Amino acid sequence: MHDLVSIRDLGKKDVEAVLSEAARMEKMPPKKSGELLRGKLVSTMFFEPSTRTNMSFQAAAKRLGAKLMTFYPSVSSTAKGETLGDTIRMIDGYVDAIVLRHPYEGAARYAADLAEHPVINAGDGGNQHPTQTLLDLYTIKKLKGKISGLRVSLMGDLKHARTMRSLLYGLGMFGADVNLVSPSALRMDEEVIRETKGMFGINVSQTSDINLKGVDVLYVCRIQKERFQDKYEGEKMQKEFRVDLEALRGAPEDLAILHPLPKVEEIPPEVDSDPRAKYFEQAKNGVPVRMAVLYLASKG
Amino acid sequence: MPLMVEKISEGTVIDHIKAGAGMKVLAILSDAYPLSKMAALIMNAHSRKFGRKDIVKIEGVFLDEKIANRISLVAPSATINMIRNSKVSGKRQVKMPDTLTGILKCPNPMCITNLERAETSFLRVNDRHLRCRHCERLFSPEELA
Ligand SMILES: [Zn+2]
Questions:
Q1: Bridge partner residues of A4 (DSSP)
Q2: Searching chain A, which residue's CA lies closest to the CA of residue B108?
Q3: What residues of A are in contact with residue B112 (Cβ under 8 Å)?
Q4: What architecture (CATH level 2) is domain B99-144?
Q5: B36 in the Ramachandran plot: left (φ > 0), alpha (ψ -120 to 50) or beta?
Q6: What is the arithmetic mean of pLDDT over A136-155?
Q7: Which of A54, B17, B41, B67 has the maximum number of C-beta atoms within 10 A of its C-beta?
Q8: Which residues of B touch A126 (CB under 8 A)?
Q9: What domains can you pick out in chain A, each with its CATH number?
């Protein structure tokens, strides 16, 4: 692996390599991991703010012993109209790897085409956020011991959430059984579902209400009420797709509830102390997964 | 009695266009070539294969690969006949290629190719869909053409 632009670039073997490397990183004492990228420079370039993702990447780079150079677009020449292409080519000359987040879709692909050093996509607008998908898969595998054959429900605004499209792809790759739960107005693009089904031959069902019977993993993302023209309808949907203790009554004891965070109203704080809530653990897994990605990409 | 359209001596006849798609083919041609060229569109001609078909003739022009690829998006069944000295000198079926590079604009306004001068590339997923190599969105051939 040289760059990490999109989950679509990875085969099952590549994903497995990242997951097993991440497991190794998680167990590795900091003294040892701190030698892996010693002497290397990593630049995080965030053209839109995402404190969590940025910190997670910085923690990963530091734990590998790399030095960080943070790029601040607001005070740099981008504000003066320099193109992304020029900026990438320049920074590529200074550092050994670039972590890029950009509001335009395909920005990481473009940057990877231009840069000689590895480019890691930390989110390109509404398109991809591959390290999120990898850490989701890592978390599921770690919690359940496998992904194949698991019953996974993806719930929320499946029309707009990029994490969900990529996750469906990743789950498909490993042969999970997927149920998509969303208001009918916020369903995932039919063609994306058809393609994933056709590619991996998995079962994908769609429903408009929560039924947690027999579900192994519930992955929740936000429903923004602003997406609905009708304000009342928006609030109603937000309530209906809320995972509170009431909704969890009767759900399997070994259910794992995941969320890409930050969460707002879709999972109230009362659920945080429920042993089935695994989203903080999931966020924590971001560090070893990003360590694995940075390390594998640097190794080439 | 059949409608008569002047025969061309040098140029291209695009035949077997699905009825109704001829205008789109003409639009691609007028976008690609300066239309001091004489062109004709025949709509709803009889066809043994399709029942009805459109035909486009353009004088003095031989299509390059990129234009033929664009035409394949709106008229996948079209055949391209090259006419020299009033005779058909070559015939081929258009074919949607596996990748279309550098000729189409991505319809997604948030695609990086619409911000920077990145060369676009679209990968054929199936007959009905192509994917932008950059923003990874799926588009129908008509949307791209
Ligand atoms: Zn695009």
A1: A120
A2: A105
A3: 84, 102, 104-107, 109-110, 124
A4: Roll (2.30)
A5: alpha
A6: 98
A7: B17
A8: 110
A9: 7-128+286-299 (3.40.50.1370), 130-283 (3.40.50.1370)
